[in-house]
Design brief:
With 103 residues, this protein is mostly helical. Helix content is 94%, strand content 0%.
Length: 103
């Protein structure tokens, strides 16, 4: 499941990069033309920016889903192995304490 989310996220990010690159090219073209051609390019730019916003929302949803899955897995692990979790937390706290005290 995590691999599918990662693959979907990568596809969305690639699409977003493509949209941004295309939009940048169109902005350069708008600077060189005027009149009806400029209006048509502005409309294409607006459509590309709308598509980019949509892709960004989709990516945000994927990242949130991935975070929920990770949180659920962590919660399950802690409930199944409470003493191990306490030991790891204590060890990390001890190491951080050592690092902070050395400064």
């Amino acid at each position: 499941m995590n691999e599918k989310l990662k693959a979907d996220q990568d596809v969305l990010l690639d699409d977003l990069r493509t949209v941004i690159t295309d939009t940048e090219g169109m902005l350069k073209d708008v600077a060189q033309v005027g009149g009806a051609e400029a209006q048509a390019l502005r409309e294409k730019i607006a459509a590309n920016l709308s598509a980019a916003r949509t892709k960004l929302v989709e990516t945000e949803k994927l990242v949130a889903e991935k975070a929920r899955i990770a949180a659920k897995a962590t919660d399950e692990y802690v409930h199944e192995h409470p003493w191990t979790s306490i030991g790891v937390a204590a060890g990390v706290g001890f190491l951080l304490g050592l690092l902070v005290s050395r400064r």
